[in-house]
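If your schedule permits, I should be very grateful for your opinion on a structural question. I have a record of one protein: its chain in single-letter code and its fold written as discrete structure tokens. Would you kindly read the sequence against the tokens and tell me how you understand this chain to fold? Thank you for your consideration; the sequence and its tokens are set out here.


***
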Amino acid sequence: MERVQHDRGTKKTEERCSLYVMLFAFCLAFALPQHADSAMIYSGIKNIALPDQATLTVDLDGDGVTDFEFVNTYLHDGFLNRDYYTNSIDLSKNPQNAVYGGGTVKNFDPGTSFPSSDDGSWQSWNQDGSDTTVNTGYYSVSGADFHDTGKFNDTTGFIAVRFQIKGNTHYGWLQYKGTVITNATTKLSDTILDWAYNDEPFSSGFRIGQRDCVDNDGDGYGEGLGCAGPDMDDNDPNVTDNATCHVVLTPAKIVKALSFIPLRSIVIRSSGSTEFSNKPVINWGTNAIKTVFQLRLNKKTILAVVRVLGLSLEVGSVYQVKVDDCTGQIEVAPLISPIEVILPQAAMK
């Protein structure tokens, strides 16, 4: 009899442990970043001037690999007494990367549809074995005669590009401002203003100039999937999330939980060089959110499992969350609308 009771107690303990393990695994799965919709990853304002008679390398995704190399060249033709200026892209530096437009890049207007991947006007070194010109012009010294021969002379437009990230092809755009040569001492001092690319491989279903980041001051930080992070002051380009101690919550919105689904997992990350303490204290800004379990995954990341008292939360409310000395915010979203059941007319009589 005692053996039977012991076996039953052991079985209940095992079942209880198994339940805890399953619950933790469930919460952890929801806490890990999920790839949702594709987003345009925006660079923020760059304003990079192309140097005179030199090269400029551009790393679109910040992985340390040069994606495109712009080259500024000058040539004097003694026979015609002309000074030739050219800004081009050396496609041999990354042979699989491409720009749109053939030998001379196309100047796109903002809002136009992005060219399809199978369009024959894409040019790469692997495909065509040649570079592509962005802006050109020459000055006839003897006749004081200037000629625009490029598509970016004295205008601003967009260049469509595709490049590699970890072996996958990504599409994006660069905003380019061209200058005009007015006399013998003027050079092509063109400028790359900014850029963006689609974080989903092989996807070209967006518009030229599109960026999925609500960024009022143009520093790349703001609200939306394409932002580099939240902006502490979106009216000042010199203030980003690194300007002060700040935390980012994933998800940033918490749904009013029903009584039978009270738990939710949230990942908290610190911005900039800020690091959390060994036992960080989390204050959710409301008594309706209580920490059930928390784990410091590393110096900059915390996994928190919380209990949500949905009846105490107001939809649309935004609460200031404090973790150690850092702050962030979390918003209350409405419950998913119930499924509408349409009964047959006969049943309604």
